[in-house]
Amino acid sequence: MELAPHQSLCLLRLSAIGDVCHAVAMVQAIQRQYPTVTITWVIGKVEYQLLKHLPGVEFVIFDKSLGWRSYQQLRANLNGRKFDVLLHMQVALRATVASLCIKARTRIGFDKARAKEGQWLATNQAITPQTQPHVLDGFMGFAAAIGVKDLTPQWNIPVTAADSEFAAEHIHADDKTLIICPSASKAERNWLPERYGAIANYASERGLRVLLCGGPSASEQQLAVQIQANCSVKLTNLVGKTTLCQMLALLKRATVVIAPDTGPAHMAVTQGTPVIGLYAHSNPGRTGPYLYQDLVVSVYDQVILEQHPQGDIPWGKRAKGSDLMARISVEQVELKLAQMQVLSLQQIETI
Description:
It is a single chain. By secondary structure, the protein is α/β, with parallel strands linked by helices. It has two domains: about 10-145, Rossmann fold (3-Layer(aba) Sandwich); about 160-350, Glycogen Phosphorylase B (Rossmann fold, 3-Layer(aba) Sandwich), CATH 3.40.50.2000. It is built from 13 helices and twelve strands. Strands 3-2-1-4-5-6 form a six-stranded parallel β-sheet. Helix 7 (about 195-205) runs parallel beside helix 13. The chain is globular and about 60 Å long.
């Protein structure tokens, strides 16, 4: 199907940070082909804080902390409205229930193999099945379903002048800077603090300033303290000291980012900053930094085969174990950092 001029589209993707970064590329692909279509995005409260300056998009916040009242609030916010198309882009029971508050004639969800948690009950069309897609490519399937031809991912997430000034205070124009975003949503996906410290030392020896970024939770702040304790150079510790938009501005100015499977890795991708992703539990082919798969350090393939030696492993299967990240060595990450720096020097020499 194709959209007609001035039709209305509602997008339902509540979380998480990395996923909404992928969804931005899809939204902006739609905007390029259909500049007069109005877009409303039902989004989580935290995720809104990152994307609130996105051009041409109306946001309706779904605050899951309100419990069942969150659905009442969503229904009230959309009272009397009906959309031409709903893109139901989240496979979760919470999102499926939320979708019942959204009136739309055409309701597009994932294909049968992926429309879990009851999503298929709340949709009347499905995107084309895909074989082993990255999450971003899966999202682009929704754009394709409404006739978008150019699915090349591009991002324009505006950074305000105030946030840019904040970042410039910490990363000067001529600084070569490594930002380490060390913490994932689950502690088992974090690399070891002594190895983060070792790579910070290595980066410093190669002329890079090192900053730590992350959220305000006690566990993230404690990890930052542990990294500094295992590092002989003084790090700039901004963990818990930035808003999401300030972090985005910092990532934009960085030379390179090192992170496990976590939202800031994908934030950096939106800003064109190379990311060295550290993966053990999830398949980087599905959730890795989209533009920088060649910089990923992964032990996932080895681990998942050990855990499922019979083969026939589902594409999204996660590996289990609390010590898997220990299988990523400092030397592997050093090699990727050196590789990235060599590529940067070659690019400078061709200018």
